[in-house]
Design goal:
By secondary structure, the protein is an all-alpha fold. It has helices spanning 13-21, 29-32, 37-40, 50-61, 66-78.
């Protein structure tokens, strides 16, 4: 158990496909990633509505590109 939650691992593409293709009505990201609320704050990412979460993900996508991530290394090391 992890944080008193039961975890399931989906190993391999065949096992993972239904997970990634399911709608929020079938598999709720908010429910699964609720433990991240203290990290991001209320109403942010996984605590947001589906519509707001999609907008937030689009905004974050640019900052999470490989070239950008490589640029963060020196800043993180400096901290």
């Amino acid at each position: 158990q992890f944080f008193h939650k039961r975890l399931t691992f989906l190993i391999g593409p065949e096992a993972q496909e239904p997970f990634f293709k399911a709608s929020d009505e079938v598999l709720s990201q908010n429910e699964v990633y609720g433990f991240m609320k203290p990290v991001f704050g209320p109403g942010i990412v996984y605590d947001a509505t589906k519509k707001n979460r999609q907008v937030q993900f689009q905004s974050m996508a640019n900052g999470l590109r490989t070239a950008r991530l490589k640029g963060y290394t020196a800043k993180i090391e400096k901290e």
